[in-house]
Amino acid sequence: MKILKRLIPDSVASRTFFVMLVGLTVSHALSVALYSTDRLSALAFIGGEHLGERIATVSRLVENLPEADRSRVVELAAGPTLHVNWAKESAVVTAAGGGWQTRILRDALLDQFGGLSERTFRMMYAESEAAQTVHRVGSGKDEESNRGPEQDRMFLVSLKLPDGSWLNFRAPLGELDSFWTYRFSLSMGVMIAAVFVLTALVVYHMTAPLRVFAGAAHRLGTDVGAPPLQESGPVEVRRASRAFNEMQKRIRRFVEDRTQMIAAISHDLSTPITRLRLRAEFIDDEEQRRKTLADLDDMERMIDSTLAFARDDAVQETRETVDLAALVQSVRDNLADTGMALAFESQGRLPYACRPTALRRALANLMENAVKYGERARVSLLDRDDSVVVRIDDDGPGIPEPDLETVFKPFRRLDGSRSRETGGTGLGLTVARTVVHAHGGEIVVTNRTEGGLRVEVVLPR
Are 20 and 198 in contact (CB under 8 A)? Predict the structure, then answer.
């Protein structure tokens, strides 16, 4: 079953092409086989009619001659295509055969002799040595004929004369012309080539809308503001394009409404936070004033981070080709200047089309988290055939397996690995994954067997 699945094409285009090509080729082959059978039947019918006419002519001539002249006439009547001898016994010792070839010859003889009964003649259709053996035994002669390939198939007919003697006829059937002639092979090749080309064109145009929808869906996943699909083509394609464009409009409207709502909330909260900060200055207790101002600072950081996340800078920024190795190196250098222990390995220059500001922000969040919770981190850049990978390894405690996915949720903090004392708002990984998804990539988080956490940013080419 697995082998059969491997042989079956995987894509819709290849499967459609395979079915159409095989179906048309098989149907044409069956048509050729039927034509070949009809051709053989037609040639056998014509040969039987002609042979029946010659046998009738020779028999009428011989039976009206004196016995002294019959041998001479039989010798003159014989030829390459009809062997005749006159004997006391029948060359065909069996009754008339029942094949379709003998039925054709029997009908032809009955037409020629009118009311002649079937008991007055015998016939058979023989192939190869059987034909020669029957003829020699029936004629009473031990002759060795120099027969060629055309005598491998022949008719044998024994006709009883009124005096009780027999006229024995042997008619070799010539070889049929090869069906696979040069002209026929050429026409078959032209037909197969035409079927191949036409099928490829039909399949290409049939599957073109699927490729368009796949590309549009990919663009929508990375850019909600991508241009709409062109509503053209057959009615089904136009309906699907119209539905896709409507869906894209609703998604864009939802994202815009969410951004505007969060921006409005952030703006409205900034004023009371400012008032609270001013009032906190009048608190006499120094410890309470310090705690209140720290809480207000946390609130401001959360609001700023939430607003930055909602604005989704990764979607708004224009893509450009940059040296990804240099971009990662610059992020590492900026963090190293603040005292973070970061090592970087690269295979050299690596051009990549991205939104550099957003990607720099995402990588900075990931590297900063790695050093903050793992003490040291190592960054490496891997170049693969279909993607590039930024790998970040740290020496921290790692993350429990059930929480490997939940760390990406907004404001999510894990006990034992995230705390207020370390700073942050719990949006770093959320923002990073949003940026990577906007590039069509993915973030994979795993615990290393030797200890620590591994974060891989997989970016498609």
Answer: no
Give dist(CA 249, CA 253) in Å, integer.
Answer: 6
Angle at 22 between CA 16 and CA 23, to 5 degrees: 85
Q: For 443-455, how does the pLDDT look when each residue is reduced to its tens digit (9 = 90+)?
A: 888 888 888 889 9
Q: Could you report the per-residue pLDDT of 19-40, keeping only the tens digit for each?
A: 777 777 787 777 777 766 665 5
Distance of CA 182 to the CA centre of its chain: 34
User: Which residue is associated with the tokens 């003889």?
Assistant: 109
Q: Are residues 296 and 320 in the same domain?
A: no
Which residues, in sequence order, are bridge partners of residue 157?
Answer: 123, 169
The one-character DSSP state at 341 is E
Tell me, rounded to whole angstroms, the distance of Cα 414 from its chain centroid: 46
Q: 456, 390 in Cβ contact below 8 A?
A: yes
What does each C-alpha distance from 185 to 85, 179, 323 come to in angstroms?
A: 43, 9, 58
pTM listed for this prediction: 0.49
Domain boundary among 276, 311, 346: 311
Helix (H, G, I), strand (E, B) or coil at 1: coil
According to DSSP, the β-strands at 341-345 and 376-383 are parallel
CATH of the domain at 421: 3.30.565.10
Residue 212 belongs to some domain of the structure = no
Q: Are residues 258 and 153 in the same domain?
A: no
Q: What is the CATH number of the domain that holds 307?
A: 1.10.287.130
Phi, psi of 197 (to 5 degrees): -65, -50
- Picking from 26, 27, 29, 17, the residue whose alpha carbon sits closest to that of residue 196 is 17
Looking at this protein, which amino acid is placed at residue 187? S
Which residue in the block uniquely carries the two structure tokens 């896709």?
244
Quote the CA–CA distance of 127 and 149 in Å, as a whole number: 11
Cα 137 from chain centroid? 65
The number of folded domains in the chain is 3
Residue ending a domain, among 172, 190, 207, is: 172
For residue 373, being part of any structural domain is answered with yes
Eight-state DSSP code of residue 442: E
Contact partners, residue 117, CB within 8 Å, separation at least 6? none
CA-to-CA distance for 396 and 224, rounded, in angstroms? 37
Taking the alpha carbons at both ends of the chain, their separation in whole angstroms is 35
- % pLDDT > 90, the chain: 3
Domain limits for position 247: 223-311
In terms of Cα–Cα distance, which of 397, 410, 399 is closest to 445? 399
Is residue 443 within 8 A of residue 456, CB to CB? The reply is: yes
What is the pairing mode between strands 453-460 and 387-394? Answer: antiparallel
